[in-house]
Amino acid sequence: MAGTPLSADAGVLARNFNLEVDGLGTIGFTEISGMTSEVDVAEVKQNRDGKYILEKVAGAPKPPTLILKRPKDKSMDLWKWHELALQGKMTQARKGGSISFLDTDMAPVAQWKFTNAWCTKLVTSSVGAGKNEVVMEEATIVMTSFERTK
């Protein structure tokens, strides 16, 4: 049996996306991973008529940890955001924002909003004399909530 043909809007062109962070504006990245939606599973042990039953029930929603990569540039915005967490200024470090996947006309075709996000880690790729490679920066971002809105 043949599969149903995909419509023209069945896929999203993966090379185009935006990360917007409140107070920082749009930050350009070339790669994103960790976009998951998950609910913890809790186990409840019960005794029903002399039989032990292990029931699995829904626990709390588990927001993702995003890993974003980009070529290193001279902008200090990402560092300043991360630095707020380093200094323990978590009220200022926690920010809202969104991730949008864009079509070829740069119009959003899918969007997720997040709240209370902060940059927990920044990594700069290794460098070496004589190499002709782009220096990459990797940011790890955690959050309280992550919701698809489009």
Structural commentary:
With 150 residues, the protein is mostly beta strands. It has a single domain (17-148), classed as Pnp Oxidase, Chain A (Roll). 9% of the residues lie in helices and 51% in strands. The chain has 2 helices and 10 strands; from the N terminus they run E-E-E-E-E-E-H-H-E-E-E-E. The strands form 2 sheets. Strands 1, 2, 3, 6, 7, 8, 9 and 10 form an 8-stranded antiparallel beta sheet that branches. The protein is elongated.
Explain the layout of strands and helices.
Blueprint lengths: L16 E5 L3 E3 L3 E3 L4 E11 L2 E12 L2 E7 L5 H10 L3 H4 L1 E8 L5 E17 L11 E7 L2 E4 L2
Antiparallel strand pairs: 1-2, 1-7, 3-6, 4-5, 6-9, 7-8, 8-9, 8-10
